[in-house]
């Protein structure tokens, strides 16, 4: 990029970005607390695990030699980060979730890395993590969201048009808007359109803010809740607590 284009690139104090990141992180934590405690998801999960422990006795023959840390690490890598459980639904559903998950991770990393590597100011150009991580991250979010649209429950099971929008679709539409604005600000900043990239960046941050603030009323906390449940299930399985019938159960039935 020429010096003229770099001079046109959007520049703003890094303190603004750090302050925004801190506030949005605190709002996210408050949203998680609301979803887990006020909406009683945490209590529901605890009751479900207790009921499962009572129904299915622990089997000493199960591989309990694996430490809890190994079980948790395996669950995160093999099951959560690869959306393995969604493979039971369909390959397309799993792949769309993988794209959205890793797109979100890349976009978040772009924001966090920019907070720490920038000096007193942030300049949006090809060397900014907010751009070179944000563009592929938001492209993955966009593709994953578009791929997911026709797989929604109201579409796949009720035979509705994929263009039909209901209140429950607010989350996925919010992701689409954020992804488009994220791609726009990155592309515009690369080519030095400062005014347009600034408008796109403001819109992008606004979309992220809406996603976080209204998270407890959307499927956003689901990614944290479901991931946690998967890990807990794997820990239970390593202890022999499983919904699968034991040999004695099968003998009793026969």
Concise account of the structure shown:
By secondary structure, the chain is mostly helical.
Structure description:
- With 254 residues, this protein is an all-alpha fold.
- The chain has one domain: Fumarate Reductase Cytochrome B subunit (Up-down Bundle).
- Helix content is 69%, strand content 2%.
- The protein has 12 helices and 2 strands.
- The chain has a two-stranded antiparallel sheet.
- α3 packs parallel to α11.
- The longest helix has 27 residues.
- The chain is globular.
- The N and C termini lie far apart (75 Å).
- The N terminus and C terminus are likely disordered.
Total beta-strand segments? 2
The tally of structural domains comes to 1
Report the mean per-residue pLDDT as an integer.
75
Which structural class is indicated by helix and strand composition? mainly alpha
Order of helical and strand elements: HEHHHHEHHHHHHH
Query: What's the shape?
Result: globular
Rounded to an integer in angstroms, the radius of gyration calculated over CA atoms is 22 Å
CATH class: Mainly Alpha
Tell me which CATH architecture applies here: Up-down Bundle
> Mind summarizing the main beta sheet?
2 strands, antiparallel
Tell me the fraction of residues in β-strands, as a range: under 5%
Distance between the termini: 75 Å
Individual helix count: 12
Q: How much helicity do the residues have? A: 55-70%
CATH topology: Fumarate Reductase Cytochrome B subunit
Extract low-pLDDT stretches.
Answer: 1-8, 58-65, 245-254
Q: Give the neighbour order of strands across the main sheet.
A: 1-2
